[in-house]
Design brief:
Keywords: Glycosyltransferase, Transferase
GO molecular function, one term: glycosyltransferase activity
Number of domains: 4
CATH topology of the largest domain: Rossmann fold
Number of helices: 24
Pfam family, one: Glyco_transf_20
InterPro entries: Glyco_trans_20 (IPR001830), HAD-like_sf (IPR036412), HAD_sf (IPR023214), Trehalose_PPase (IPR003337)
Distance between the termini: 36 Å
CATH architecture of the largest domain: 3-Layer(aba) Sandwich
Strand order of the largest sheet: 5-4-1-6-7-8-11-10-9
Radius of gyration: 33 Å
Number of strands: 29
Family: In the N-terminal section; belongs to the glycosyltransferase 20 family.
Length: about 775
């Protein structure tokens, strides 16, 4: 059959020859099996979990005698590996990620096969240049600071690396490479995919393109900044849509989730609902679930380290080295956001304000190696060294050093020993995703027996900007930017009674030990299964290009209305009724000029010229405006103001649908609306003959929604005895008179009921064209 291109339905009907019966075929909107087929393949055991992270949970060290020249071992300290303890015991687990840096040049298919068989790890091979631009360029020097609230105000702020489109393309290329690798092994109807952290923000979109019914979870281990920060990203919409292509999105704290929800509302116009303890965002027929739960620690792994004999030996050595001192501990990465310099300033202020602590209070700061290179990292190191040198010079004496910096590599046993020996842990990060240091400190203090069997106690001085802060209610929370507050908190910790320290410690240990990494992984896995339970009962249709791709999920009874269905029935019938929604259908809602174009007028006239057609424009707009716009359409019917006014043609008079003619209630409603308009920037009142409408679509989304709720309650109160209906719609609050014959309803149902009064027994073909939500 020849291919034809037409601008509208009428042209298509005129051009096409009579169509032969269409062969039976599967609808194109479906992806995979029909909903009537078995809900899901039934594997012999639990579905496989595919854990995707930037790095594989492996260590690699050169070893000529080992296969491929490297000795690979499991890195049990990574969250990606530790979460296995919370997954079903019988469920297979596959890790996907890049190789450890030391072994990056050994990439080969043979190595991949070896790692899969030996460690259940599938490597993603990225060229060195691409990986550098992806990780060090876009992720660490652009996204990482911005997620931690640092704006690239000038090129020098981030070492000359503000947003760079080329680096962003490298980021997308790396994420696409992960998707390519997953495509090789993924069973989309069986596997659950769990993506870790911001390095792979774009991966859900690439997976959803290839597998519309893939079961995808995403957990963000970094903060999610305020929408005012996030909106500065030039590709902000793409990144938000990528997250929304997951089924479950997890955050450490409610603050981070709230910022994400706010960004979705302000940038994409999406609202969320909370139902039975779950937060969900409706996105093209799919419900994206938002989960809030901080990561815990691996209790078993940490206990094994603390109970090791070599740890106990080091604990006693540390205790002897600081005998008679008040030992405080800090453990941080060399990072711009860890607040090491602020911590040292707080220590200095402590010694200034408390002379009796000079010679006694000691702060040991262990600095982990930096995860990236750059001028900002060097500046953090130089600042910390300068402050510690000044404090030690000012308050130090022979045999007493107030601030002890340990910059060398520290083994896990030595680090656990310092945790066990310190009576106070100080975390002063100015912004951090979670920071599990206080959790580790609490467990080490509890589990170590090297210092005797006395009741355990501990104190934590904790920045209020750290993700674990809401979980540790017994910590002394501080604003790290206030040096005086940090010093006061340190002083309070050192002066706290033993009984108070024991109570706080017991409270923390109970939480940490019951909310470990296994609990977190088990909870996320269960919620991911719940979020994906309807995948096989719905049909999925992919739309959009590039990073704007999304999947429309449709009910099992949905059938796509195609030209093949419309045209034959159109030709066979004699009495047709066509109802066309105006705003958002005939004319785009984003259009500034809402008047119909000459092309729209021409198409409507051609439809109306057929005596078998009765065509109506349906709108909530006033009759005068619609009459003016559609004056060239002699035979067009119009249903204005949600059907309050109906006109069958240009020469016909306007009719009403039997409403009460008393509009005195407007004198009460309008002043109330005016009050809220004055208080809500961007809102306005629309005056109709039959109604008053308060619009807040141009106001701040959160404030406008809040004001709309208040206005709804206010109007219902003052109009309780009036013959009106007050209702809230999408970005509106509307007051309508009560109807006698036709109940007020949605945009289409009210005028449809009016029109069908006259045509119900006459028509044998009906076409409704409107927006999905209408």
């Amino acid at each position: 059959m020849p291919s034809l291109s037409c601008h509208n339905l009428l042209d298509l009907a005129d051009e096409l020859p009579p169509l032969p019966p269409s062969p039976l075929r599967l609808p194109r909107v479906m992806a995979g099996a029909s909903p009537s087929s078995p809900a899901s393949p039934s594997p012999s055991g639990p579905p496989r979990r595919v854990i995707v992270s930037h790095r594989l949970p492996l260590r690699a060290s050169p070893d000529p005698a080992a296969p491929f020249g490297f000795k690979f071992t499991v890195d049990a300290g990574t969250v990606a590996y530790q979460l296995r303890s919370g997954l079903p015991a019988a469920a297979p687990v596959l890790h996907v990620g890049t190789l450890p840096p030391a072994a990056a040049e050994a990439a080969s298919d043979e190595l991949a096969s070896y790692l899969v068989s030996a460690f259940s790890c599938l490597p993603v091979f990225l060229p060195a240049d691409l990986h550098g631009k992806f990780y060090h360029g876009f992720c660490k020097h652009y996204m990482w600071p911005l997620l931690h609230y640092l704006l690239p105000l000038t090129p020098s702020t981030l070492g000359g690396l503000p947003f760079d489109r080329a680096l962003y393309h490298s980021f997308l290329s790396a994420n696409r490479a992960f998707a390519d690798r997953l495509t090789e092994v993924l069973a989309p109807d069986d596997d659950f995919v769990w993506i870790q952290d911001y390095h792979l923000l774009a991966l859900p979109t690439f997976l959803r393109k290839r597998f519309p019914r893939a079961r995808v979870g995403f957990f963000l281990h970094s903060p999610f900044p305020s929408s005012e920060i996030f909106r500065t990203i030039p590709v902000r919409d793409d990144l938000l849509r990528a997250l929304l292509n997951a089924d479950l999105v997890g955050f450490h704290t409610f603050d981070y989730a709230r910022h994400f929800l706010s960004a979705c509302s302000r940038l994409l116009g999406l609202d969320y609902q909370s139902k039975r303890g779950y937060i969900g965002i409706e996105y093209y027929g799919r419900t994206v679930t938002v989960k809030i739960l901080p990561v815990g620690i691996d209790m078993g792994q940490l206990r094994s380290v603390v109970s090791a004999p070599e740890t106990a030996d080091v604990v006693r050595q540390v205790a002897d080295a600081y005998k008679g001192r008040r030992l405080m501990l800090g453990v941080d990465d060399v990072d711009l956001f860890k607040g090491i310099g602020l911590k040292f300033l707080g220590m200095e202020q402590l010694l200034v304000e408390n002379p009796e602590l000079r010679g006694k209070a000691v702060l040991v700061q262990i600095t982990n190696p930096a995860r990236s290179e750059g001028r900002d990292v060097q500046e953090v190191q130089d600042e910390a060294r300068a402050i510690s040198a000044r404090v030690n010079e000012r308050f130090g004496t022979p045999g007493y050093t107030p601030i002890v910096m340990i910059s060398r590599p520290v083994s896990e046993h030595e680090k656990a020993a310092y945790y066990a020996a310190a009576e106070c842990c100080v975390v002063s990060a100015v912004r951090d995703g979670l920071n599990r240091i206080p959790y580790i400190y609490t467990v080490c203090r509890q589990e170590s027996t090297a210092l005797g069997d006395a009741p355990k106690r501990s104190v934590i001085v904790l920045s209020e900007f750290v993700g674990c802060s809401p979980s540790l209610s017994g910590a002394i929370r501080v604003n790290p930017w206030s040096v005086e507050s940090v010093a006061e908190a340190m002083s309070s910790a050192l002066r706290m009674s033993d009984g108070e320290q024991r109570l706080r410690h017991e409270k923390h240990y109970k939480y940490v030990s019951t909310h470990d990494v296994a609990y977190w992984a088990r909870s996320f896995d269960q919620d991911l299964q719940r979020a994906c339970k309807d995948h096989f009962s719905r049909r999925h249709w992919g739309i959009g290009f590039g990073m704007s791709f999304k999947v429309v999920a449709l009910g099992p009874n949905f059938r796509r209305l195609s030209v093949e269905h419309i045209v034959p029935s159109f030709r066979k019938t004699e009495n047709r009724l066509i109802l066309l929604d105006y705003d958002g259908t005939v004319m785009p809602e984003s259009s500034i000029d809402k008047a119909p174009s000459s092309e729209v007028i021409s198409v409507l006239n051609r439809l109306c010229e057929d005596p078998k057609n009765r065509v109506f424009i349906v709108s909530g707009r006033g009759k005068d405006e619609l009459s003016k716009w559609f004056a060239p359409c002699e035979k067009l019917g119009i249903a204005a103001e949600h059907g309050y006014f109906t006109r069958w043609s240009k020469e016909s008079p306007w009719e009403t649908c039997g409403l009460v003619a008393d509009f005195d209630w407007k004198k009460t409603a309008e002043p109330v609306m005016r009050l809220y308009t004055e208080a809500t920037d961007g809102s306005y009142i629309e005056h109709k003959e039959s109604a008053l409408v308060w619009h807040h679509d141009e106001a701040d989304p959160d404030f406008g929604s809040c004001q709309a709720k208040e206005l709804l309650d206010h109007l219902e109160s003052v109009l309780a005895n009036e013959p009106v209906v007050v209702k809230r719609g999408q970005h509106i609050v509307e007051v309508n008179p009560q109807v006698k014959r036709v109940q007020a309803a949605s945009l289409l149902s009210s005028p449809l009921a009016v029109v069908l009064q006259f045509y119900l027994e006459l028509i044998n073909w009906l076409l409704l064209v409107g927006q999905m939500e209408k």
